[in-house]
Amino acid sequence: MNHQTIINDIKLAEFCKHLSHQAWFAIDTEFVRQDTYYAELSLIQIFSEQDDLALIDPLALEDMTPLWTLLANPSITKVFHSARQDIEILFQVGGLMPQNIFDTQIAGVFLGYGDMAGFARVIENELKVTLDKDQTRTNWHQRPLTSRQIQYALDDVRFLAPLYQKMQQQLTAMQKQALNWDFEQLLDASLYQVDPDQAWLRLKGTQNFSPKQLGMTKALAAWRERTAIELNQPRKWIINDDVILYLAKRPVRALEGLYKVPDLNAGLVRQFGEALIQQLDWAFAHEEYWPDKPTKSEPPQAHEDIQIQLAMSYAHQVALNAGVNLNNLTQKRDLLCLLRQQPSLLDQGWRALLLGEPLKQLFNHQACLCIEAQQLKLNPI
Question: N or C, where is the chain less crowded by C-beta within 10 Å?
Fold first, then answer.
């Protein structure tokens, strides 16, 4: 299929003006993120409602304002597959949040593909096309691009477009309405804005930490984030999570003590040792910086625990039928909140339609659990 490669600002402006009169277009990006903090945008592919197929080369362009404006136009639907990384880099580079998106990966939940379906698998099942994925880890910054790179990049959008069209026919109005909430969540700018003081929340293994240990964790994680940004290096190149957790539990007061910390080699101690000690000393002296331990909700009472166990059994069945990871579908705390009529992740989006609404009927005595054809089902009373 013929395509155009856009490498000058005038052609980009003309192309974006043409797209601005269409209802939707499919979009994908290629980027490099191996040895930098920020992903570096390498290529943008677009296939439009009117079969316009283009490769946009950001490395050759000086002014991409027309594209950022087009992406922010709420009257045009932008179709992605697994949109989050694409949105992140487009927002960081362009400074404008895309509006009105459709993510075929999320929509695949209602078609039995689960919540993390790869593009190639969905395309093979829906369009009977086998995609060649041998360029997944290629160097997208190289110029000129090879013919295999170009074909790979074009395939990602020229098959995404008919997939979107087919999904529009397959999904019910209720499913589309539920998905809109999930798509809106992806457009929350706070997901993509860096706040070093919140970096500690990404670390796992702090559940039993004291407020002082959490303060140490917070200070070290914030320092690592700022340093990674300043040096434009991956976080793990500065220090890894295990080092932060170790120092938060066993803070050292002198540089010599850092040489005994596991996973912290002598080179890192020489480069960052003084800064690490300063962060630990500062956090130790500023109790007001220590986070409060998260308040735990009141544990379920005996009768609630029984209902939650039944609900979790049904959730297992729903997850199995939809091909969804159970932990991504729901947690016990979500079920408890739903039972207590408190805000829950199961109130909105695809989770509400698959699980939340049926469970509300169960909890409100409007439905009962039954076993039919070796499956657990909810039947109205």
Answer: N
